[in-house]
Amino acid sequence: MVSGYALVLVALITLLLFVLNRKKKTNVPGPPFLQGLKEFSRSVKSNKLHVLAAKWADKYGDLVSVNAVISKVVFINSPALARKLLSDPSTRDISNDRPPTYLGKVFLNGYKDIITAPHGKEHSQRRKLFHNVLKFYGEGVQGFENLMTNTSKHLCERLAKYTGNTPLVTEISGYIGWVVGLLLKGKDVAQEDIESMQKYIGIGNEAFILENEIFLESIPYIAQVPGFRLNELVKGFEKVDKEIDVRFLTSVRETFKKGEKTGIITDLLEQQNQLDKKGNFADMSDEIVLCLVKNIIAAANLTTAGTLSALILLIIENPKIQERIYAEICEVIGDNPPSFDHKRLMPYTEAVILETLRYCTVTPFLLPHYAREDIDFKGSFIPKGTFLLLNAWYFHRREDLWDKPWTFNPDRFLDANGQLLSTEHPTRQNLLAFGTGKRACPGESFARLRIFFILVTLVQQFRFLPPVGAELPSTNPENWETKSVMAPHDYTCRLERRSAAEAGI
What we know:
By secondary structure, the chain is α+β, with helices and mostly antiparallel strands. 55% of the residues lie in helices and 7% in strands. It comes from Aplysia californica.
C-alpha cells in the first residue's frame, strides 16, 4: 500500500508541476508534448536518453526542447553553439549554473563542492583553491610524475604474474584508485581507504543516474520509502559517505596536526589554516574540504577508468593502431621510463587519446547546465530553470563535422605531416570531452596526463591480445553499459611481454 500511495502522490505532484511549468514557453523546436514526455520517460528509465536525443537532433536541429513536466530540457547539439552559449559575455553568467540535485543538496552539504555548486563567487573561489592544491606546475608536476613512475612499475609487476586471461579492467580500476588514494593521503593510504572509495564510486554510479536524480530531487521522500530500490541505494551511500568522512578527513587531520604534509588533503587543511588566520575559515570549512575530496574521488576514478577500459579494448580490436603507438614509444622513449615531457613528442599517441575521448564519449551529456535566468540566444528563448544538456554523444558523431564518425580513426587529429592539430583547429574545437567555459573540468590536465602515462607504460611493456575461451565486448559505444559514466562491459584479455615478444621467444 505504501508504494501505491507514493505513486498517487507522484502523479499529483507531476500534475502540479505541469501546471506551473506552462507559464513560460520556449520557441525552441522539439517533439509534441505527450509524445516527447512518453519518449523521454522511456529513454531515461532505460538509460538511453543519449540515443533518443540524437534522433531528435537529426529531426529538429541544433537546439531541441522537450517538456518533461518535472523539468524543461534543451539539448544543445552543436559544439559551436555550446561554446557560444557557455562562453559569450551575453549569456555565460546565466548559463553556467548546475541544476538542483539530491546528491549536491544532501551528500555534498548543500552544494559546497565544485561539481554541483551553482556558478558564482564562492564556486570560482573553490576552483582557484582546487587548482592551487593540485599543483599542476613546477615541482607539483614532477612529484606527480614520480608517483606515476613508481606505482606503474607495481602495476606492470602485477600484470606480468598472470599466465592466462587477465582481468585488466579490474586491475586498472584498482590501480587508479590506489593512485588517487596516494594523491589524497600520501604514504598513509591503506587498502581499507581504497575499498571505501570503490564502494563510494560503485554505489554512487548507480544511485545518481539521471532517472534516479529526477525522482530524488523532485520527490526526495521517496528515498525513505521501504521497498524502493532507491531507498536501499541511498542508505548504502549514506553509510559509505560517513566512512569517507572518517577516513579522508578525521584521520588525516591527526597527521596534519603532527606537522606532516602527505597529500592533497593536508594541503587543503593548510589552505584552511591560512584562511582561518585571515578570518575567512568559512571559505574552506571542513564541509568544503570533504566535498572537494569527494569530487576528486568520483571524477578521478570513474571517467579515467571508463576511458582506459574503452581505449585498451579498441587497440586490442585494432592491433595496427596498438603497434603504431609502440613504434612511437620506441622512437621517442626507447626502454626508458616515460615522462610527461614525452607527451608533446608523441603526436600519434596523443591523437589516439583524443579519438578515444571523441569516439567513446563516456559522459554523453557531460555535466548538465541550468538556466539561472531567461535566456535569449540566437533568436531562441530558453526560460529560467531549464536544464541545458550538451549533447556530446551527438555532436561527436555528426557527419557534417566528422568523416566516418563511427570509425575509430586517430589520424583525424593529425595534419599532413603527422603532427597533432592545434587546439584552435576546427577539428579540435569540435571536441568537447571536458566541457567549455567557466564550468570546464578543472581536472582536464590531470586526467589527460594520467591516461597518457598509463597507456604508454602498458603498451611499452605488453602487447594486448584477445582472451582465450572468452569474447570481448562490443566496441560500439551504443552497446555499452550506461550509468553515470558509459563504458564497455567488463572483459579479460591476454598480455604478452614486449621483451619476450620482440625477441621472438
